[in-house]
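#struct-help
A.M.: can someone run this one for me? Single chain, 104 residues.
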Amino acid sequence: MPIKKDYETPATGAIASYHVAAMVTLDAISKATSVTLQSFLSADARAAGKSPMYQQQIMITGLPDSGTDAFAFADAQLVAAAPSDDAAALNPARYAFAGAEIVD
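D.P.: on it. Structure tokens below:
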């Protein structure tokens, strides 16, 4: 499901507000999930077939439980709150969408 949050794209500084997990890859050996996230100006821009303004790959520690949809797992992890330790400082992109809203 899409994620709604204003996000300043690093390359241009333009604000993208609608983000979609385009690809989710599960790595059983390292127990990690990789999400290719595409950022669009808005839901309307994506619906109109516009290209994403920005695309990035975000690594998430952990795998979905058996029977859990990988995309739903990725979305939930991307919007989860950042930990209170220094983990967020080590990988700022990982928590850039913390607190965002998952929309239909």
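A.M.: thanks! The radius of gyration is 14 Å.
D.P.: also worth noting: The chain has one domain: 3-97.
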